[in-house]
Model the fold of this input.
Amino acid sequence: MPFHGFSAINLLGILFVHHGVYLSEELMNHERIHSAQQREMLFVFFYLAYFIEWLIRLPLRGNAYRRISFEQEAYSNQRNLNYLKQRRLYAWRHYLVSRPSHHKHKTF
Ligand SMILES: [Zn+2]
Done:
């Protein structure tokens, strides 16, 4: 596992998990949301957009990784195990613009 600090990473729909990490339903749901994002972005555009958004957010306030729209969608909905049944295509786009202040985010 070359990705330090991550418990799991989803590459082309294949989940790589750090040794000893418990695959909870929540974590699986998080990764399944990423799989849906990757499919609708034809994989290559997902990784491009993910990387570009991370680069743009890097100098901005907050944790760049956590603020990537793909991650915000996954973190916000991972506890809803029915989320993928009702999810609209490209739902991550609603997270591109920073949430209004009533939406509480953990700041690191
Ligand atoms: Zn994620």
User: Anything to note?
Assistant: Strands lie at 8-11, 14-17. The chain has a mean pLDDT of 89. Residues 8-95 form one domain. The first strand starts at residue 8 and ends at 11.
